[in-house]
Specification:
By secondary structure, this protein is an alpha+beta fold. The chain contains 9 helices and 8 strands.
């Protein structure tokens, strides 16, 4: 059942929805037609445009580059180098030939070397561990993006329903303002004809003034709430929006399900964090293992009394090549217990995450239990408040009729109007409480994505 229709049926003298919308500040000033915004539209718009959602998607993309970086350590590294050296003074070396020592200058004034080198890890436990952690890294960022989307959806849904309630409250106060003005006009006519007291006219004028101030404040609150909704979905603030009536319905949810909270993004993200800590521990433990690598290089060197570039042996410049291939073995023997300390620190991270997992599980179970309990209470409150609105409307109609026939005082009439407004507010607040609890229940079931469909 639509909320606006509920109020139309309960308020015989209510304003038409179109009149209320046109009365909202800023609506008449818009040159462009207002954009209809359903909850589905708002959520999907936020997932496409809101900063947090976009950054989460970028983090997933960045994870792929981090994985490529890890994989690069298992691939060969090839580099080229070159240099040109001028030796103004060539070092002399003392050489004993058996018949005396002579000083010999070893080298040339000029030398230039160009070469290519290759390095390949053959065995490095940290590289293997990093490759195994790559998949978990990707999954971590994917779950994090999923959690971010849920947080965006929850925030948008809550603000969307707040806007809707604010619009209903504006409708209620506007309707009561119009009715009270009509009563004021009747009393003024009676006063002009000597049939009413000045105090009665003053009191009703005060009531009209208070209602006018209240609806002005409510409109301001509505505008601020709409702007907050636009902010939370990443929509330009100047965009005019209108919410369709069909969005605010009481749709009882199944309360008999027992969701598996370990499948919720909050829990799965922490599980991935634990897996990454475990890989981090293995990476630290890799320092206990030996490493084996292959290096190879090929170089071309030119030496002579002149700058060797573009020179031949006829100018005293000689070019030769040389190459080397090596196997490098590193065996850790003693590191001063530094590696052991790092391993134990990594183990502490794992154990802390295990405790966080237990606490998260309890927190998620509690959230579901509280949401379910609030849903039950809210449904009861909605039924009670709806009945109160109906009764308050009947009382107000009777008192208005009695007042016009001189059978009720102005105090009775104002009290009846106040009771009617209060019952309407209580009803809308009960609806809002229900819808917010509904969002929490859907979240506890891990079904927030259904709001995008």
């Amino acid at each position: 059942m639509k909320i606006i229709n509920d109020f139309k049926s309960l308020t015989a003298k209510g304003l038409a929805l179109l009149t209320v919308i046109l009365a909202i500040p800023g609506m008449q000033a818009q040159t462009a037609p207002a954009q209809e915004l359903t909850l589905k539209d708002a959520v999907n718009y936020a997932l496409q445009n809101k900063l947090e959602a976009r950054k989460a998607k970028l983090a997933v993309e960045n994870a792929e580059y981090q994985i490529q970086e890890v994989r690069s350590r298992a691939l060969p590294s090839i580099s080229a180098s070159g240099n040109l050296t001028y030796n103004p003074i060539i070092q002399q070396t003392a050489v004993d030939f058996g018949q005396g020592t002579q000083l010999l200058a070893l080298g040339q004034k000029w030398s230039s070397v160009a070469g290519v080198s290759l390095t390949q890890n053959i065995f490095d436990q940290s590289v293997f561990t990093g490759l195994r952690a790559a998949k978990t890294t990707r999954e971590f960022y994917q779950v994090n993006a999923e959690l971010t989307d849920e947080q965006v959806i929850e925030r948008v849904a809550n603000n969307y329903y707040n806007v809707y309630v604010q619009r209903i409250q504006v409708t209620v106060v506007d309707s009561n303002y119009v009715n009270t003005v009509k009563i004021r006009d009747i009393i003024k006519g009676q006063f002009d004809n000597g049939l009413a007291k000045r105090i009665d006219l003053d009191r009703i004028n005060v009531t009209v003034s208070n209602l006018d101030a209240e609806r002005t404040q409510l409109r301001s609150n509505l505008e601020q709430q709409e702007n907050a909704l636009k902010f939370f979905i990443g929509m330009p603030i100047q965009t005019a929006i209108v919410l369709p009536d069909t969005q605010f319905e009481v749709t009882p949810q199944s309360l008999n399900d027992t969701p598996d909270t370990t499948q919720l993004p909050q829990y799965r993200l922490m599980q991935k964090q634990k897996e990454l800590y475990e890989f981090n521990k293995k990476a630290v433990q890799a320092a206990y293992y030996p490493t084996l690598s292959l290096t190879a290089g090929y170089n071309y060197i030119g030496q002579g009394p002149k700058m060797p570039w573009f020179q031949l042996s006829s100018a005293g410049v000689y070019w030769t090549d040389f190459s080397a291939i090596a196997m490098n073995l590193h065996i850790p023997i003693f590191t001063g217990f530094g590696t052991r300390a790092k391993v134990r620190q990594a183990d502490i991270d794992i154990r802390e995450t295990e405790e966080d997992l237990k606490d998260t599980k309890l927190s998620l179970d509690l959230a579901y239990s509280n949401a379910k309990s609030q849903m039950v209470v809210s449904l009861t409150n909605i039924a009670n408040q709806k009945e109160n609105v109906k009764l308050a409307q009947e009382v107000l109609d009777d008192v208005q009729n009695n007042y016009q026939n001189g059978l009720a005082s102005l105090t009775d009439l104002l009290d009846a109007e106040t009771s009617y407004i209060t019952s309407q507010r209580n009803y809308t607040n009960a609806l809002l409480t229900y819808k917010l609890a509904e969002v929490q229940l859907i979240k506890a079931k891990g079904e927030l994505k259904t709001l995008t469909n």
